[in-house]
Amino acid sequence: MIAQVQGEGLPLVVIHGFGVDHRIMLPLEGALHETGWQRIYIDLPWAAGDSDADTNVASANDVAQGALDDIHEHLGERPFAVIGNSFGGMIARHVAHVLRDRVLGLATLAGVFEPIHQARSLPRRHVVREDLSVLALAGQMRDEYEAMTVVQSEATLEAFARYALPGIRGANQTILERVSSAYGLSVEPEIAHPAPFEAPSLHLFGRQDHITGYEDGWKLRDHYVRGTYAVLDAAGHNAHLERPDLTAALVRDWLARTMASVL
User: Fold this and answer.
1) What is the DSSP string of 217-253?
2) Which of 208, 95, 111 is nearest to 151 (CA)?
3) Burial letters for 103-125: b for 16+ Cβ neighbours within 10 Å, e otherwise?
4) For 13-46, how does the pLDDT look when each residue is reduced to its tens digit (9 = 90+)?
5) What DSSP state is assigned to residue 75?
6) Residue 46 — left, alpha, or beta (φ > 0 → left; ψ -120 to 50 → alpha)?
7) CA distance 206 to 192
8) Rounded distance between C-alpha atoms, residue 185 and residue 228, angstroms
């Protein structure tokens, strides 16, 4: 469902990751609010909390179709760009290929490119900056924060508490379990639509991301012929929370390239 709409201009559809909600993407607002794009934040089915509205959702294919339905309902036939984080990056790739004629640009942040966890090429778990005082401040959210974070600081703790934790705590676990059992799309977007993707794209990864890694996404670099690829040091799976300034600069650059391609 459409969770939030910000600003005016060309539509930019924003899709969050697995087990969180649209709030995980709100740190991008600082980079987006003066770009000439209207931000349309989608909540994926588990973000409904205890709602029974999405009881039929049982796979990544269902989630992807739901995103397509939301986009069609809200935008009709209007062209748009799309950005997705983690699992939302996989959904964004699906949207961008199915609706290629209308999609102006695609960005993925720590995107899922290999749905089977055991098949992923992953770096070893490495915390770049440890800070026991920050872990002590984390209190009851320490386990969730420590599991995901490679730069432990008061800034990343505050960002995690504000943008990630509410979605984690409010997620509908029944829907998450069902989708987990069919986590991958039936056909990867680049296989279903093998022609090179020619719209401007951005694929941003964390060098220390032990959840999705970066090498699986890099393998598709020839498909995204106008793609910027960036692997950020001192960044894990929540790269945009740990390296917000560099992420913002790369996202703004992608949107500027996308805007220039349609003017």
Assistant:
1) HHTTTTTBTTEEEEEESS--TTHHHHSHHHHHHHHHH
2) 208
3) bbbbbbbbbbbbbeeeebebeee
4) 999 999 999 999 999 998 888 888 999 999 999 9
5) H
6) alpha
7) 27
8) 24
Domain-wise residue ranges, the chain: 2-123+170-262
pLDDT in tens, 141-182: 999 999 999 999 999 999 999 999 999 999 999 999 999 999
pTM above 0.85, yes or no: yes
Contacts of 223 (CB under 8 A, 6+ apart): 190, 194, 196, 197
Cα–Cα distance measured from residue 242 to residue 239, given in angstroms and rounded to the nearest whole number: 5
DSSP letter (8 states) at residue 124: P
Q: Please choose, from the candidates 255, 257, 262, the residue with its C-alpha nearest in 3D space to the C-alpha of residue 35.
A: 255
Confidence of residue 49 (pLDDT cuts 50, 70, 90): low
- Topology adopted by domain 2-123+170-262: Rossmann fold (3.40.50)
Label residue 134 by pLDDT band (50, 70, 90): very high
Q: Which residue has the tokens 């709409």?
A: 5
Please give the torsion angle defined by the CA atoms of residues 248, 96, 35 and 85, in that order, rounded to the nearest 10 degrees. Answer: -30
CB atoms under 10 Å from CB of 168, counted, come to 15
Two tokens, residue 227: 């793609």
What is the DSSP secondary structure assignment for residue 151, as one 8-state letter?
A: B
Nearest of 227, 231, 249 to residue 239 by alpha carbon: 231
Contacts of 73 (CB under 8 A, 6+ apart): none
